[in-house]
Specification:
- This protein has two helices and five strands, in the order ααβββββ.
- The chain is of the alpha+beta class.
- The chain has a domain of about 90 residues.
- It has a five-stranded antiparallel sheet with strand order 1-2-3-4-5, with helices on one face.
- A hairpin with a 2-residue loop joins strand 2 and strand 3.
- The longest helix has 17 residues.
Length: about 140
């Protein structure tokens, strides 16, 4: 009985109109929805590329989270001008390169329903500030 009530509650009805204001799909057209982009099997949707302002905010968040030094911490960032946002999370332990303490991190980049990841590396300067040396798209190995 419940299924019948639900089915009849969401059942649709159609009205035939000969009005040019309504577009019709051809009989051989495939069904689709505008909320889900069609994708070729095996290919990922291409996310928007970060702007320089987005990257600057990501670098600042990376420097902030590395300065905190907390284990298992992340630092969010957001750019209201572009609608992009994300967070930066240090990965693995600190290591030494050329006598400087360095750390790797991952940063998420979310914009317009797509998400991608950036990988980066930073080292402490002589003044103790974290300097971001690399920030590039993350490639799974």
């Amino acid at each position: 009985m419940i299924a019948i009530l639900i089915g009849s509650g969401v059942g649709g009805c159609s009205v035939a109109r000969n009005d040019a204001a309504f577009a019709q799909m051809e009989d051989n057209a495939k069904d689709f929805t505008g909320s889900i982009a069609a994708m070729t099997p095996g290919l990922a949707a291409s996310p928007s590329s970060p702007t320089e302002a987005d990257l600057a905010l990501t670098r600042n968040a990376a420097s902030d989270v590395l300065t905190k030094g907390d284990k298992d911490s992340s630092q969010p960032w957001e750019n209201p001008a572009t609608g992009a946002r994300g967070s930066v999370t240090p990965v693995a332990a600190a290591y030494t390169t050329d006598g400087r303490t360095c750390r790797d991190f991952l940063a998420s980049y979310v914009k317009d329903r797509s998400e991608s990841w950036l990988q980066g590396a930073a080292c402490k300067s002589a003044q103790g500030r974290w300097e971001i040396h690399t920030l590039k798209p993350w490639r799974r190995s």
